[in-house]
Design goal:
Blueprint: E1 4-14, E2 19-27, E3 50-54, E4 62-63
Amino acid sequence: MSGASTLSFFGKIYGTQKDYWIAQGKLDFSEEKVTNPYQEARGKGVNTYVYWVTDSLFADWIQLPDAEPE
């Protein structure tokens, strides 16, 4: 989660097999180029925040992809 200008705990999802912790933050840069012309750029609209998820606080956090119109 390095590189986030802001970061906060967003919540916890209680699943039937595992529970998931969610973090929310802002990144000032985008690693990949937007290929869909209808997708909002990172930092705008539905992609204002970036989310990370993990099923164990001792494991790595996985960055979720930006939202797409589909």
